[in-house]
Amino acid sequence: MQKLFALVDCNNFYVSCERVFNPSLAGKPVVVLSNNDGCVIARSNEAKDAGIQMGQPIFQCRDLVSKHNVRVFSSNYCLYGDISGRVMDILSHFTPEMEIYSIDEAFLCMDGISGDPADYAHDIRHIVKKWVGVPVSVGIGPSKTLAKAAAVVAKKVSRHEGVFDITACAQDILSVMDVADIWGIGRQYSRFLRQHGIETALDLRDADDTWIRKNLKTPGLRTVMELRGISCIPLEQSQAPKKTIVCSRSFGRKVTDLDELKEAASAYVSRAAEKLRAQKSAASFIEVTLTEFPFNQGAPATHIASMDIPVATSYTPELISYAKALLERVYKKGPVYRKAGIMLSGIVPRGRVQASLFHPCHEGPREHVLMETVDAINARWGTGTIVCAASGSNRPWWMRQAHRSPRFTTSWKELPLVKA
Amino acid sequence: MLMAEKTDMRVKEIWGFDGRKKMKIPMFTTGISAGFPSPADDFIDKSLDLNEFLISHPSATFFVRVEGTSMIDAGIHPGDILIVDKALEPNPGSIVIATLDGEFTVKRFQRRAGKCFLLAANPDFEPIEIESSMLVEVWGVVTYVIHKA
């Protein structure tokens, strides 16, 4: 049977979330900043028209912001996560199979839809907008790669009203699509392809199979088949456990003091360990990264220390003690630091941890219960309800979020206000 | 809270004071007797879940807090929490959350002689006629009022 996929993509998602609870933002230029209020990571169409670029540091857009009266927000991931969950829940009622591809995108299986798939997609679009208040675009095609290409057209060409089915006109669309814009073709591959005369998506679709297999290997060939309308990349309905877990953040201000760095590292380890336990894994390798402030425009110096963990673990206090030890190894008094990161890898399922002859296992049943309880409490009463004291309480290094909107949907104290 | 046995220790339940997800209250179909294990134990029917009773469309339902007194006669007081369902279409007479001049307002939605109105439930406030030039949108329909007794 011919496969059919839809990619549902939320438009300017973070900005749209802000607008749901702030009607005064309608029609106004709005941007959302990255952690620490550094760069622009989401723009309303009005902000795009004003000339603000994606990824631009906000201090570079000061003039544009004041000239166009752009409303600026810190990222509010509690809100975006909640709204995303609602959108995905609604989408799941429209299809028996779907893949949540990112916080604001999902692939839906459209096999066996009766009637015009575009009509069905318009229904999806209408319901998501009405129920949650977030506008979405829908791209439809016989493969995930084509559905993704269709979604770009759906979003950009206003006369399609947010829905585009590429099935009958793939040739025309692919002939004007840059090869770099194809899902799965990175910047590096596109440079290589261009050197060999492959400029558009159509050029790639019609390329020679043997040449593709030789130069782009199997994944490349899969993409080419997908462009031809043959579905080769199935929906991924369950996420495979991650092989590495990283938690790394820039500080809210300059940090020089070892104790503050230890607090930050402990907080990041706690978060990484929580993720580790959520996927029922344990880590056998830990790495700590410390980044200095760049000096005189040069590349910022980065210091890395790592170690093997004797017996794979997910027990936060144990991981914190390793992180602190590693930090002492890389820390030097003098430099100003702007970022720290933790990476856990060598990840194994928790049930299959190798015991060591020479090292006692720190994570017995008591520790297991303790962590389970802490995770359950934090899940129910909010992140950070219970933390290891090592991760500090004042947290002067914590990220800057000067313009965060209220957590409208996840905190009783921050509900939207209505005038009566 | 913790069921501690020598080898098999596990968390059975975590209790708190302000559960935000589910509040389960066992409903007894017989009277409760204190002291000895009751034969009524066998007749515990099910747990009541307020979410189930108050919310028909969880992904379209939001909570908002009231400021002001214009809806007092409809039983909506300052500080109350309203349950708002965005999936519902407003009918004449529905209490709605509307966006008006860039703010949320709660009023009663009414149609009269081909015109739409937002009506207060307090004689001190004038009705608002919705004209096509105004930026008014019905954001959601109020389904329940949570008022502290």
Please explain how this structure is put together:
The complex is a heterodimer of chains A (about 425) and B (about 150). Helices cover about 35% and strands about 20% of the residues of chain A. Chain A is an alpha+beta fold and about 425 residues long. Chain A folds into two domains: about 1-170, 2-Layer Sandwich (Alpha-Beta Plaits); about 245-390, Dna Ligase, domain 1, CATH 3.30.1490. The radius of gyration of chain B is 22 Å and the shape is elongated. The model of chain B is unreliable at about 1-5 (pLDDT under 50). The chains are: A alpha+beta (about 425), B mainly beta (about 150). The interface between A and B is large, with 30 and 45 residues. β14 (about 415-420) of chain A pairs parallel with β5 of chain B.
Which terms would index this structure?
heterodimer; A: 420 residues; alpha+beta; Alpha-Beta Plaits; Dna Ligase, domain 1; five-stranded mixed beta sheet; five-stranded antiparallel beta sheet; 13 helices; B: 149 residues; mainly beta; Umud Fragment, subunit A; 2 domains; seven-stranded antiparallel beta sheet; two-stranded antiparallel ribbon; 1 helix; disordered N terminus
Mean pLDDT of chain B: 82
**What's the total number of strands of chain B?**
11
Low-confidence parts of chain A, pLDDT < 50 over ≥5 residues?
none
Reading the helices and strands of chain A in chain order gives EHEEHHEHEEHEHEHHHHEHEEHEEHE
CATH architecture of the largest domain in chain A: 2-Layer Sandwich
**CATH homologous superfamily caption of the largest domain in chain A:** Reverse transcriptase/Diguanylate cyclase domain
